[in-house]
Fold:
Amino acid sequence: MTNALLHPFSPPAKPEADYLEIVRGEGSLVFDAAGRDYVDGIANLWLCQVGHGRTEIIDAVTAQMRQIEAYNTFAPFTSGPAARVAEMIVERSPHPDGRVFLGCSGSEAVDTALKLARLVQQRRGHEGRQIIVKRTNGYHGTNFGGTSAQGIALNREGWGDLVPHFIEVPHDDLEAAATVFAEHGDRIAAVLTEPVQGAGGVYPPVDGYLEGLRRLCDDNGALLIFDEVICGFGRTGQWFGAQTFGVTPDLMTFAKGVTSGYQPLSGVIVSRAVCNELEEPGFLLRTGYTYSGHQASCAAGIANIELMEAEGLVGRVDNIGERLRAGLAALEGDGLIKSWRGMGAIYAAELGRDAVPARDKMLEAGVILRPMGTCLAICPPLVITDDEIGRIIDAMADALR
Ligand SMILES: Cc1ncc(COP(=O)(O)O)c(C=O)c1O
Structure:
């Protein structure tokens, strides 16, 4: 094995031979090349809602590819699967009369949402509105827009100049956001936030925070963007975090859970009011990707949503959450973790020290969690069984003892 592969978010000096290869998956379990099984406590990377190895999705993608693997959706072309998945997504969103722009990654969705927010302000005659307000701990992908929007400082460093006009506010302080609006209100295009911050450490919003952001945006003519790349598709107990928290944004990004990872698919849900701005006769939307509406990806999205619906997976989140909270509370009671946070089916166990050694010990015990600084993230497939949740908690207890 050569070192030809340059791994994402990894030390390039680490040799290929030191990596663990996952070669197979079934439900909430994945298997390495030696046949050892692991409970996939992070659902690949916050995304595999329906579990691994689902033939329903594999067959749907195969059938689509036998028809046509991909053909672009730039005018004058369209695609039945793209139109259908868009329809299924808006129907489950707070914008049933909205529309969906498609891409392949969360980063593409975020950058498109940022562009759309500025575009709409320009088209409303507010050329001076370019500022995007973003939050500490926010993770919004790694394209230049998303990198500029990062609230994780280390992810912004080392790339030279980023996109201008981003202002960061502390993630839990609505007053700080209000101060930014008081100072720059007529130059703010949008506020960008995850409903529950994920990769930055799993932080649910403090009470009233998202409602407060909505109010600030409404009072000042700014758009509210929810980055639902992790929260979307059931993770918080409803189809979208917007519904769980009862706050409706103008633009919503999604990716990950829309296909459970069987094919790359992402997008931006656009409210009716924003669509009205774009639908002016003669206007041409000059942004998009070769693979916007990729047929095989859209077929995976359709089959994934059908499967989630048929198996009531969004409704399983309550039980998953209850069991994870009980397990984490017991670990805290035993003094094995300092604290925990999270909601729905997304949690972080705070260890108060570097979490990599605990992650490594848990891997040896056959459980995959993701270390984030001093905490371990838990975000399992929505098909996880009670026994498998027990295996995660037991492995954590053993590793920390
Ligand atoms: C909230 C959020 N936005 C955007 C992204 C970027 O998605 P991708 O890695 O598919 O580009 C992520 C990835 O974890 C994410 O969690």
